[in-house]
Design brief:
Helices cover 51% and strands 5% of the residues.
């Protein structure tokens, strides 16, 4: 079994694609945990593992979280990804550090996540090179426990 830590995957992706945004990464991460990023607001939320066309993002860091969330929802289903997000209708008080929740992945899930990250990155408007860097960074961040 392998383990994905979303925040670690996002940081490695930003390091690969837009290292100049690392100064803002913690702020973007905090906004993501509070569901305050552009793709998390309004009617353009990620649903059923897809990213809506026209999602407005101002930083690559925001796009990284949109890609990882959408790709993970596609591969694992939206129920698995719900643990990462604060669900105000489920909780009366703020969730604890929702972003730190690790996700168990099989080898096949890990490979599917890499491919889904590339597709979602392209959908959000990343260049093919950026989408590849993001997908590879996410895949490279997966901790393998069985020798992988």
């Amino acid at each position: 079994m392998n383990t994905l830590y979303p925040q670690e995957a996002a940081r490695r992706s930003v390091e690969a694609i837009a290292p100049d945004e690392l100064d803002y990464f913690d702020d973007v991460t905090a906004a993501w945990a509070k569901q305050e990023l552009a793709f998390q607001r309004g009617s353009r939320r990620l649903a059923s593992g897809t990213i809506g066309i026209g999602v407005d993002v101002s930083l690559v860091s925001e796009a990284v979280y949109a890609v990882i969330s959408g790709a993970a929802a596609e591969v694992l289903g939206t129920v698995a990804v719900a643990a990462w997000r604060q669900r105000r209708w489920w909780h009366r008080r703020p969730a604890r550090d929702a972003i730190a929740a690790p996700v168990a992945l099989s080898d096949a899930d890990s490979e599917a996540l890499q491919a889904a990250c590339r597709r979602h990155g392209l959908t959000l408007g990343l260049s093919p090179e950026q989408a590849d860097l993001l997908a590879d960074a996410v895949y490279g961040s997966i901790r393998r426990t069985d020798g992988g």
